[in-house]
């Protein structure tokens, strides 16, 4: 874990961030725009997580002789509460990423950001 995290934070992330955010970066030159920096962070996190999951494999005890083993459930109320907290936190975070709402048109940007967040969550469900 320490080596994987060090490689990602020391080498991979700076290169990808430069591609997207630096003047003359590979993605920036192609017209890529990353509002509040979330695209680079989340796309890289998803790819790194996928690589780690493929490398590590399934959980210990998940399969027995190639047959899936039923995993015991977790607390449904706590799962629901966590989901609600996550949704409300993301709406506040994404809506506040603009940093201000003082100029004409700012409200539309914030509304679009919150609407996209809700639609993305609905589509992922």
Q: Can you walk me through this structure?
A:
The protein is mainly alpha-helical. The protein is built from five helices and two strands; from the N terminus they run αααββαα. A two-stranded antiparallel ribbon has the order 1-2. It has two domains: 1-63; 72-125. The protein is 66% helix and 3% strand. Keywords: Ammonia transport, Membrane, Transmembrane, Transmembrane helix, Transport. The chain crosses the membrane at residues 35-56, 76-93. InterPro entries: Ammonium/urea_transptr, Ammonium_transpt_CS, NH4_transpt_AmtB-like_dom.
Residues in β-strands, percent: under 5%
Largest sheet: 2 strands, antiparallel
What is the N-to-C succession of helices and strands? Answer: HHHEEHH
What does the overall shape look like?
Answer: flat
Structural class designation: mainly alpha
What level of helicity do the residues show?
55-70%
Write down how many β-strands occur, each being a DSSP E stretch of 2 or more residues.
Answer: 2
Protein name: Ammonium transporter AmtB-like domain-containing protein
Family: Belongs to the ammonia transporter channel (TC 1.A.11.2) family.
InterPro entries: Ammonium/urea_transptr (IPR029020), Ammonium_transpt_CS (IPR018047), NH4_transpt_AmtB-like_dom (IPR024041)
GO molecular function: ammonium channel activity
């Amino acid at each position: 874990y320490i080596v994987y995290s060090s490689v990602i934070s020391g080498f991979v992330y700076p290169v990808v961030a430069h591609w997207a955010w630096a003047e003359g970066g590979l993605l920036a030159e192609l017209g890529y725009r990353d509002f509040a920096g979330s695209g680079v962070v989340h796309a890289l996190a998803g790819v790194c997580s996928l690589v780690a999951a493929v490398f590590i494999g399934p959980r210990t005890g998940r399969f027995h002789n190639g047959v899936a083993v039923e995993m015991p459930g977790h607390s449904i109320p706590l799962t629901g509460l966590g989901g609600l907290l996550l949704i409300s936190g993301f709406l506040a975070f994404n809506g506040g990423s603009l940093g201000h709402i003082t100029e004409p048109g700012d409200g539309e940007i914030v509304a679009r950001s919150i609407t996209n967040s809700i639609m993305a969550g609905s589509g992922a469900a």
